[in-house]
Every structure is written in C-alpha cells, then in structure tokens.
C-alpha cells in the first residue's frame, strides 16, 4: 500500500489561538514579541497585521512605523509547541499517526484512513472545515511524501491533493523554499537565478552537491520519495486498531453497541488471520465537542471470541457520556498474544471448565476492576512475604509445588499488623492477644516455627511463628519478632486460617 501524507500548515498559529481566547482581538492587527539582543522583535503576527506588511523577525519599532495602531503582546516561546500537541491529539480521530512539525505544522500519515470518510477530498474538507470553524487559518495538502505535502501546503497554487505518483511534477513550479532549505542555500540559488525547483532538479547531482552541499540533495530526495523520511508520532502506533466514523453523531446506547459490535467483528477477523488473541482492549468515542470517552477491558487469556468481548464491554457502556454525539469510534488492542486455531478449539470445546472460569474472571474484573482478582503461585523463598508471587495469567504454571511440610494460612496479610500479647515465659505461645481492640483468649496453640531472615536479601530479626485458636474457634498465624534476651520483642498477626 502506498503511503499518503497530509500536512496542515497553521499560517497564524499562536495569534489565531489568542484571538479565539480573547474575542476582542479578532479583526485587529496585533503581534507577539519578545526581547532579543536588547530590542523587541516580532515572533508572530495576526492575519490582519500580516496583510498590512508586518512579518515575523521585524523590530517592533518598525512595525509601529508601518502601522501605528498595531497592538504588541508578550510572546510565550512554549506556546506553539503546547498548542500543536493539543491539535495533534485532536487529529488522532482522523489517523493514529500524527506528528508535530515545529513551529507551525502537523504531519499526518493518512494511509488507509481516508476511505472511511469517502475518499481524500471529503477527508481533507472535513479536517479543514473543522479547524477553520474553530478559528484557525489553515492550508493543507496530501501527497505521497512528507516533503511534497509540506511544499504544496505552503506554496501550491492548484490542487491540494496530489494524485498517486504525481508528486514529482507537483513540485517543479514551486520555489526552492518549498524544499525546507536553509537561508544560506536559498540565497545562493536565488543569486544564480534558480527560482524554481524545476530549474535545477535535473542538474548533475555532483554539481549540486559541490555548489550547494548535501542538504539540498537530501531534501530533494525526500520530496521525490527516493530517500526515506521518518516522522515521530505523538503516540505509539497500535498495530491492531479499527476505526468507524459516523454519518450522524451517535447519542444512544444502542448506536454505541452497534458500532462496538462492528468494530469487534473487524478486529477479531484481523486477529484470526494473524493467529493472535487480545489480552487488553480499549474502545474510544470521539465526541463532536472534542472530548474523548473511553472504556477498557482485560482478559485472563488471549481471546478473539466476539460475543465474550462484547459482553465485557457491555458492562461499561453505561459509563460513556455521548454528549451532543460521537462522530468517530476507535477500537484497539494494545496487548495481544499468540492464539492458534487449535488453542481456540480447545478453549471453546474440550476445556469448557477452564473456559468458564476464565470468562467468569473476565466478567468480575470488568464489573469490579482488574485489581479485584489476584492469582498467586509459590515462589522459592522462606520468608513468608516473598514465598508467593502474583501470576500474570490464568495459564501460568508454578515453577515449584506448594510446600506442604508446614501449615500455612489461607489469608496472608500483605504486611504483618502489630498485636498486644500476654505470654507466660519465653518460647511459650501467648495466653491472649488484642487485635483491633478485641481480646482473643487462646484455647489451643502450636509452635514455635522459627523462620530466619534471608540474609542475602536483607538483614533483620528472626521470627517465631505460632498457630493459635481462640475461644470462638478462629485460628490465627502470629509471630514474635526477635529474642527476649536482647529486648522486649514485638508481636504481630500475619494470617488467618480457614
């Protein structure tokens, strides 16, 4: 598939934004200026000021001589980048690949996206109309290369959409500045009377390199597509992603469910073709007011079963607030794992018990959150807090078996909690203990079981553990930290037996 790029040029980026925020500036000539070498220099100018002959780089005193009524405002050097990032995030509704091109442009890789809007002409019109209605003066162009789209967006005079393979002809009549060259190179080209790219594009490359340097050839090759040019997206690209624009804004739960099902069908077909199943999925709705609504699900094992995934999402659809309507739906799977056809058959047929457990856990996690479910496996440590580790999936197998030489509580506290204890003499179990203000009189006890610290990990006191049962029949795992001979030891509760 041929790559297609869209460059959006904001002619008066920062001043347009200021006029949007301060309507009283609209229609007035004003500039943004900053101190430079002891004088105030224009960094950006409004459309009205630009029409009067004021340009960035001019000294403020000269601008007032040209236009006495011009208003001068302080420039923020970080404003352009911050604003471009916000606009780039807004453009993610049109393509997953959006890059910032400072100081005043965005570059979009729109390969495979325009057909969702009915082709490149309505796609380009939609973006330009939305930005212009928001108050930005923009020019945009689509071409096979970043360089060609950048050039045509600024200097093109005919069609902003360059047909496939026609990018070389499209730049012939454009000035050398369309190649993003440095000022020194442009000055030398002008001095030699080379006012169009077509006047030197076919010159011997050795002569061009000798006279103008390698940068001219690099920029020329990038515009022609013979040299690669990478753009840096503001967000990592998710390989498994499906998009669905709406002809009319969607405001109902039924409409959202229909869009979700269509996206799941398309995504699961791709997963099937590539032998994958998703472990995590995000469903986003882009509202017409610019807000983004998002819900997320996770699974205990790789899944591409449409009905199961739909039910997981369905639990959260009620949290989506469509507002005035959602114009674009996006479904992506940022985390996927291998899932062969044979595995899927086992998942669906012969291993029904395992499948039912996995489905139940997915639904519980969807309703109460992934943090509500934990699965633990034994780990090779003596210290109780380290003797278990959390499993990453339902299929993960333990490296060792659960130890059965000593009883262990069903519920182990993540951190031992202090208790007050009455005990007769050292090495004897307690007669009673107080936990959370409640007195527990001990009826039965067993121990001690001494557990030494793992000295290769950390230093500290030993623990003497006791299994105790109170008068109500509840059983606890308590321990004494340290020896009596050195200090008065502290007591802790660490777990509860069934």
Topology:
Blueprint (H helix, E strand, L loop, with lengths): L4 E6 L2 H9 L8 E7 L2 E7 L1 H5 L8 H7 L4 E4 L4 H13 L5 E5 L3 E5 L10 H15 L3 E6 L2 H10 L11 H4 L12 H9 L13 H8 L1 H11 L16 E10 L2 H21 L2 E12 L4 E12 L2 H9 L11 E13 L2 H8 L3 H17 L7 E3 L9 E3 L20 E12 L9 E4 L2 E14 L11 E8 L4 E7 L8 E7 L2
Parallel strand pairs: 2-4
Antiparallel strand pairs: 1-6, 1-7, 2-3, 5-6, 8-11, 9-10, 9-11, 12-13, 14-15, 14-19, 15-16, 16-17, 17-18, 18-19
Family: Belongs to the DNA polymerase type-Y family.
Keywords: DNA damage, Transferase
InterPro entries: DNA/RNA_pol_sf (IPR043502), Rev_trsase/Diguanyl_cyclase (IPR043128), SulA_CellDiv_inhibitor (IPR050356), UmuC (IPR001126)
Written overview of the protein:
This protein is α+β, with helices and mostly antiparallel strands and 498 residues long. It has 3 domains: 1-237, 2-Layer Sandwich (Alpha-Beta Plaits); 241-368, 2-Layer Sandwich (Dna Ligase, domain 1), CATH 3.30.1490.100; 411-496, no CATH class. 29% of the residues lie in helices and 29% in strands. It is built from 14 helices and 19 strands. The protein has helices at residues 13-21, 47-51, 60-66, 79-91, 120-134, 146-155, 167-170, 183-191, 205-212, 214-224, 253-273, 306-314, 341-348, 352-368; strands spanning 5-10, 30-36, 39-45, 71-74, 97-101, 105-109, 138-143, 241-250, 276-287, 292-303, 326-338, 376-378, 388-390, 411-422, 432-435, 438-451, 463-470, 475-481, 490-496. The strands form 5 sheets. A 6-stranded antiparallel β-barrel has the order 14-15-16-17-18-19. The chain has a 4-stranded antiparallel β-sheet with strand order 5-6-1-7, with helices on both faces. Strands 8-11-9-10 form a 4-stranded antiparallel β-sheet. Strand 9 and strand 10 (292-303) form a beta hairpin. Helix 9 packs across helix 10, helix 11 (253-273) packs antiparallel against helix 12 and helix 12 packs parallel to helix 14 (352-368). The radius of gyration is 34 Å and the shape is elongated. The model has no long low-confidence stretch (mean pLDDT 89).
């Amino acid at each position: 598939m041929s790559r297609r790029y869209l460059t959006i040029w904001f002619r008066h980026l920062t001043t347009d934004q200021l006029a949007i925020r301060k309507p009283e500036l609209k229609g007035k000539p004003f500039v943004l200026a900053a101190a430079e070498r002891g004088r105030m220099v224009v960094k950006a100018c409004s459309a009205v000021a630009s029409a009067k002959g004021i340009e960035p780089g001019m000294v403020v005193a000269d601008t007032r001589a040209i236009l006495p009524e011009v208003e001068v405002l302080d420039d923020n050097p970080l404003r352009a980048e911050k604003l471009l990032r916000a606009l780039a995030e807004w453009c993610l509704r049109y393509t997953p690949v959006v890059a910032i091109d400072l100081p005043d442009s965005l570059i979009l890789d729109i390969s495979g996206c325009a057909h969702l809007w009915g082709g490149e002409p309505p796609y380009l019109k939609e973006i330009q109309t939305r930005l212009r209605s928001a108050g930005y003066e923009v020019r945009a162009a689509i071409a096979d290369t970043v360089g060609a789209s950048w050039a045509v967006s600024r200097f093109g005079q005919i069609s902003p959409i360059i047909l496939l393979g026609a990018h070389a002809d499209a730049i012939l009549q454009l000035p050398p500045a369309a190649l993003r060259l440095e000022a020194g190179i442009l000055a030398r080209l002008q001095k030699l009377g080379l006012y169009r790219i077509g006047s030197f594009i076919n010159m011997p490359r050795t002569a061009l390199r000798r006279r103008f340097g390698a940068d001219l050839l690099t920029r020329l090759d990038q515009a022609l597509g013979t040299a690669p040019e990478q753009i840096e997206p503001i967000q990592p690209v998710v390989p498994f992603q499906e998009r669905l624009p709406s002809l009319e804004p969607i405001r109902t739960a039924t409409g959202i469910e229909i869009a979700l099902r269509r996206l799941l069908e398309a995504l699961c077909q791709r997963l099937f073709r590539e032998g994958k199943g998703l472990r995590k999925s995000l469903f986003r709705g882009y509202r017409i007011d610019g807000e983004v609504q998002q819900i997320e699900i996770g699974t205990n094992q790789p899944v591409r079963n449409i009905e199961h995934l739909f039910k997981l999402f369905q639990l959260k659809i009620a949290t989506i607030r469509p507002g005035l309507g959602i114009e674009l739906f996006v479904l992506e799977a940022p985390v996927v794992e291998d899932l062969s056809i044979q595995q899927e058959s086992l998942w669906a047929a012969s291993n029904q018990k395992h499948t039912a457990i996995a489905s139940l856990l997915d639904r519980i996690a969807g309703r109460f959150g992934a943090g509500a479910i934990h699965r633990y496996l034994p780990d090779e440590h003596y210290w109780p807090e380290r003797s278990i580790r959390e499993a990453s999936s339902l299929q993960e197998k333990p490296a060792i078996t659960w130890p059965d030489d000593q009883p262990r509580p069903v519920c182990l506290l993540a951190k031992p909690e202090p208790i007050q204890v009455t005990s007769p003499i050292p090495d004897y179990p307690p007669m009673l203990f107080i936990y959370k203000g409640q007195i527990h009189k001990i009826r039965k006890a067993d121990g001690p079981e001494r557990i030494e610290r793992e000295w290769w990990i950390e230093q500290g006191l030993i623990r003497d553990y006791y299994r105790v049962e109170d008068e109500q029949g509840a059983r606890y795992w308590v321990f004494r930290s340290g020896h009596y001979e050195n200090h008065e030891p502290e007591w802790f509760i660490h777990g509860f037996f069934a």
